Amino acid sequence: MTLLHVCCGPCASACVPRLKDEGRRVTMLFANSNIDTAEEFEHRRAEAERLAAHDGVAFASLPYDHADWLEKVARGYEDAPEKGARCERCFRYNLGKAAEWAAAHGFDSFTTSLTVSPHKPSAMVFAAGREAAVGGPSFLECDFKKREGFKLSVSRAKELGLYRQSYCGCEFSRR
What we know:
The protein is α/β, with parallel strands linked by helices and about 180 residues long. The protein is about 50% helix and about 10% strand.
């Protein structure tokens, strides 16, 4: 069983079919306390859940705790540039939560939809995933932007009417 950490429905829309084509049983996990407001979190969560239902995969969501994310990830890194140290810390935080959930629920592997975005450096995401996997389920280094993954995510999101946001979620990425 493979757990797919999901940053949003549009990105996951390219990942779920690829994992299923590989013969994997997939569960989507929405774990994104980096999102700046509870309303935005809920909107993205609902869209991801709608995608899971459409694609016939299980769905779970971790509780929203932006205060914890601000304390453990962003504090002292508020002015870091995009793709910098704050993003690296955010990947470690979210993939760490996904790895914990995967271990607690009997998954043998996990991966993330973060790599479908051309705005997320896959090498940085992979490093965070490998770190999170120590002592638990293995991390699958799937670079979902390859084989036109981003293009597929855009077209599937449009086809399914999924909400496409214009920023990663944290308040610092709006700058």
